[in-house]
Amino acid sequence: xxxxxxxxxxxxxxxxxxxxxxxxxxxxxxxxxxxxxxxxxxxxxxxxxxxxxxxxxxxxxxxxxxxxxxxxxxxxxxxxxxxxxxxxxxxxxxxxxxxxxxxxxxxxxxxxxxxxxxxxxxxxxxxxxxxxxxxxxxxxxxxxxxxxxxxxxxxxxxxxxxxxxxxxxxxxxxxxxxxxxxxxxxxxxxxxxxxxxxxxxxxxxxxxxxxxxxxxxxxxxxxxxxxxxxxxxxxxxxxxxxxxxxxxxxxxxxxxxxxxxxxxxxxxxxxxxxxxxxxxxxxxxxxxxxxxxxxxxxxxxxxxxxxxxxxxxxxxxxxxxxxxxxxxxxxxxxxxxxxxxxxxxxxxxxxxxxxxxxxxxxxxxxxxxxxxxxxxxxxxxxxxxxxxxxxxxxxxxxxxxxxxxxxxxxxxxxxxxxxxxxxxxxxxxxxxxxxxxxxxxxxxxxxxxxxxxxxxxxxxxxxxxxxxxxxxxxxxxxxxxxxxxxxxxxxxxxxxxxxxxxxxxxxxxxxxxxxxxxxxxxxxxxxxxxxxxxxxxxxxxxxxxxxxxxxxxxxxxxxxxxxxxxxxxxxxxxxxxxxxxxxxxxxxxxxxxxxxxxxxxxxxx
Length: 605
Fold this sequence. Notes:
Layout: E1 14-15, E2 18-19, H1 23-31, H2 35-44, E3 46-47, E4 50-51, H3 53-65, H4 73-85, H5 91-97, E5 104-105, E6 114-115, H6 122-131, H7 135-148, H8 151-160, H9 164-176, H10 190-200, H11 205-217, H12 219-222, H13 232-238, H14 244-254, H15 260-269, H16 271-274, H17 280-291, H18 297-307, H19 318-328, H20 331-339, H21 343-354, H22 379-383, H23 390-402, H24 406-416, H25 421-431, H26 439-444, H27 451-465, H28 469-476, H29 482-491, H30 511-525, H31 532-537, H32 543-555, H33 563-570, H34 585-604
Antiparallel strand pairs: 1-2, 3-4, 5-6
């Protein structure tokens, strides 16, 4: 079966980890039923959606392995389907590999110089779909055949296979090719009806009723479908991602389902519409708030966690959330109120901090700001007793953000300098002249220290003392990492001697370097014309985008060219978050829109 593996110059090919000389052993192990070999092949010949020359060379052997008695046939079919559904991202990779489906000549990959493509295995895939005794294999074969476009074989399976999971997989594969699957809405099995309804793209009431009724009933079987990833209800909603209104209707109904597992799953699945369709927050906050009173604890918790992510609309339920905090101290309720800057949270945290305990307050630290007047000075006393690393870092950042009294905070930061140098140095810089007592320690820091320490120290000394000497010395040394370019922007006109170096950086492949060069040029020269296009190119709800937006707002009317992009962001029909953790998306989007609206006003004069 694999006797001609040696005919391929594997050592002359590459994959994700370099030389592909290990691929023959992996293919032999795969044929022998070694599950780890399949995992290794995913990590090497198809890594992070990338194809490699070794991928092409491996395809004909993968097709043969489908008939190996010990092989994981379904797993190999899924690997082939993944390869068939993905394409190389860049032209250089495309030149090396080209499209697998349809065939391609790649010199040196096989003895004949020709690569047998994935479509060459269609007779094998059809046979497995028709004759294999295991439903999982037949379903995987349907998935792969769908990627290759053989509709006739799929229609036969969709109508005639005994297993509902296979019929459903065939319907999904047909839908992926744009085929009409409405005839399967009357299938006797809920899973088949469900995937057919998901595939119609229609708002017909009968289709909606199928989605509402059959998704919960099909929960155990959804996980058997090839290509399924993650929570079953979220998977259903993801297939309806362009129908935010329908997603909301389904979640609302599922939150009231008689089965607790469905209600719990609905709360988690609500993330899909919340993070994509702006009206979903106002529509789902009420049903989620109702579910907070669910008789089942895990449903209450899941609903509450999701309610806390709905953004500013949660303000309408602030009193209800406060009752949850008072009676159970649930961290999700505290977090939501903290995001709203509810003064009751400030008092509550002050009481907790006074005991020296953080408890559930850990989650709300990142929301603290100048509004937290009752608890902010207590943060300084918690820093040195907190566990090192994450918790201590969070406390330091919160203390600086909230405006903890420098008289309390600076001595603590000075003692923390050896253990958290970069964070402490930057924090002292944020405090400005109020951190003057720390200047001796900062001045004494070894100039040969690591890069981050050097840049942070130069910045801090400038912000605290107004003396640019350390910063200019660093910049004159010639490095131009984005952090150094950022420092030029901090210095403003004081860094005028470096002005000529900045425009060539506007086109840098390092987007942070390009962005900071534009910001620095504006702050040094006051000339907006060359930098506005650079800033506009980075406008997105992302860390870089926030920096670009802040600079455009500084520029004001001279940034009029950014107006259309900013107005489009304010009125965008979809959520725009691009970073962060689960739970922050709606809040990020709202803050981004508000900041863009403020920039529009500032630019308009």
